Amino acid sequence: MNALADRIDSLWRYKDFLPLDTSTISLGEGRTPLVPLTDTVSAKLDYLMPTLSFKDRGAVMLAELARRLGPDRVVADSTGNAGTSVAAYCARAGLPCTVYVPEGTPAQKTEQIRAHGARLVAVPGGREATALAARAAADEPGVFYASHVFNPYFLHGTKTYVYELWEDLGGRLPDALAVPVGNGTLLLGAALAVAELHARGLIETRPRLIAVQAEAVSPLAAAFHAGADDLLPADPATPAAPTLAEGIAIPRPPRARQILAAVRASGGTFLTVTEDDIHDAQRDLAARGLYVETTGVACWAAVRDGGDAVRGSVVVPLCGAGLKTGMAG
Ligand SMILES: Cc1ncc(COP(=O)(O)O)c(C=O)c1O
User: Fold this and answer.
1) How much is the average pLDDT of 221-230?
2) Can you tell me the distance from the alpha carbon of 26 to that of 99, in angstroms, rounded to the nearest whole number?
3) Which of 85, 126, 131, 203 could cross-link with 55 by S-S, CB 3.0 to 4.6 Å?
4) How confident is the model over 174-225, as pLDDT tens digits?
5) What residues have CB less than 8 Å from 149, skipping those under 6 apart?
6) Alpha-carbon dihedral of residues 257, 78, 271, 325, nearest 10 degrees?
7) Residues near 18 by Cβ (< 8 Å), separated by ≥ 6?
């Protein structure tokens, strides 16, 4: 740990563990504060990032890789925050960028994407249709597909969330990590970091992963509690309902098998939160001085009333700033 003391004050201090060891396009991402909420639950303020969400951890990796490869343009698809982040780092790298988002993405997020100079394509038909449109565009020559879902570099970026916790807690991790899960990039990054720290003998016990989904769109929670190792067949009779947590509203996450296996291997579980839980948690955090977007409050919504899954010390990420959605009403 002493070896870290003199390192740069961004996630690049963990360069020995990253697939790229330096970045000329860093915006100082990472090293977010950890603040206590209760005696046992702390929040890591990942909304205090250059583009106001945790996605900067992964997007800087993708954009740095793209910069080195020198494509004609970069394409990304997103529920909003990943696209914003890719747009910002592409702007920094001088790379033309197109971001596909589902129609209905909050105006604050689309405005931010455009502000960074990216071309915005709003796709009707939801998150799946958006991903298909981006993938078709990514097949064109000269395109770098900055996919936070498929590109493993993104997970090497998100894993720094756990490296920071390990450093801030004096070389240990909490008993449980609560993580919001849509496509699972923070969850899989966290699992990767835990595996690496354990393999290097830097932690003895591994934290439980408490994966959190909105009840309205909870395909992974349903599969987990059914004992399945992949998504259950989609039921056309119960389509995904709208949710305030639009950032984690992913009906068919492509990495479902990996996510389910990671949560099980950790001894963790899935929790779901209702729209009322999200609403109340956002108000509660704001009343404590923390202005967090509706998706970003999901983990606090899931753990704040305790329950068996929440025993021991727990860290919740507050993943996106309140300015991105405003209050839920
Ligand atoms: C604020 C916020 N929290 C959590 C997530 C979930 O991330 P993932 O889809 O990688 O699980 C997102 C994704 O956009 C988000 O914007």
Assistant:
1) 98
2) 20
3) 85
4) 999 999 999 999 999 999 999 999 999 999 999 999 999 999 999 999 999 9
5) 131, 183, 185, 253, 254, 255
6) 180
7) 12, 61, 156, 157, 160
What is the rounded end-to-end Cα distance, in angstroms, of the chain? Answer: 45
Task: Encode pLDDT of 288-298 as tens digits.
Answer: 999 999 999 99
Q: By alpha-carbon position, which residue is closest to atom 7 of ligand 1?
A: 182
Give the distance (Å) from ligand 1 centre to CA of residue 181.
Answer: 7
Question: Could you tell me the CA-to-CA distances from 251 to 152, 183, 191, 240, 322 in Å, in that order?
Answer: 21, 9, 22, 7, 24
- At residue 157, φ and ψ (nearest 5 deg) are -75, -45
| Domains of the chain from N-terminus onward | 2-54+153-324 (3.40.50.1100), 56-151 (3.40.50.1100)
Report which ligand 1 atom has the smallest distance to the Cα of 187.
Answer: 11
**Distance from C-alpha of 282 to C-alpha of 284, rounded to nearest angstrom:** 5
In total, the chain counts a number of residues equal to: 329
Measuring from each residue's beta carbon to the nearest atom of ligand 1, which residues come in under 6 Å?
Answer: 53, 79, 81-82, 180-186, 247-248, 250, 293, 295-296, 319-320
Predicted confidence (pLDDT) at residue 237 exceeds the cutoff of 70: no
Q: How far is the CA of 2 from the centre of ligand 1 (A)?
A: 32
